[in-house]
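Bug #77: duplicate submission created two jobs. Keeping one. Sequence:
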Amino acid sequence: MNLLTQLELKMHFTESENILAQYILEHGEEVVKMSIHTFAKKTYSSPATIVRLAKKCGLSGFNDLKITLAKELSLHTSKEIDPNFPFDKDDDFNTIINNLTLLHKETIDDSAALLDQKTLNQCVKLLDKADSIDLYGLGNSLLVAQSFAHNMMRIGKQVNFRTMAGEQGFLARVSNPKHVAIIISYSGETDEIIRIAKTLKKQKTKIIAITSLGDNQLSHYSDLILHISSKEKIFNKMAPFSSLLSIQYICTMLYACFFSLNYNEHKAFKLHYDYEEDLRHPFYSPINEK
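Kept job's structure:
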């Protein structure tokens, strides 16, 4: 898990460390230029507390924290549009439209750069060999999962996903080595998702994780990892504009590459399904293609 995400989640921090974490999130660019003593004075803390916070984040000390922070801030500020708040309260509709359009383009470019083709190829081969593909995720991730499952179903590939509370845990328990699991989690740290991942490992099910960059818990249980564009904060944001689009992009690439493995067969199945089962238009409508 990257440093900024750890600071935002405040996992296992003391009250004093929470104050330090919040200060870094709000004044990161200033902190990078501070000495440990200046930072301690600004936050009414001590150098020892600052070092403890750094070590809880997997870093050796304050200098290591500053180096890591500077790198992550450069990623977050290298683009023109803030993915967390892409427009301000005084912006007109035209500015909002332009900013979100640019954010979408930046997110797609970032997602494409993160997509490792060797890993994608391995994922597609796993999906092709699987008797069943099982999708796991919470909240907004399920919206993308549902679309992916729908597309796969229309080319004849069985995909399971559950939306009711607790059902994903049961789905994991009845999994087996002939299944492949796709787990979608931006943070990779959600308790329910980690429990599901642990269960799947016990069932010897291969796991494909769609998650953010960094050393999160989910990545430790996964066989293959596809990375989401990770410039968005967990809580402090307007909406998951960037992360949801990045997840959708990855799932689209998975579907498209899977389709290409048996292109003619999948095309024939898809067109036959649409002609026979898609009831959006009356049979005798002049716009029906049949």
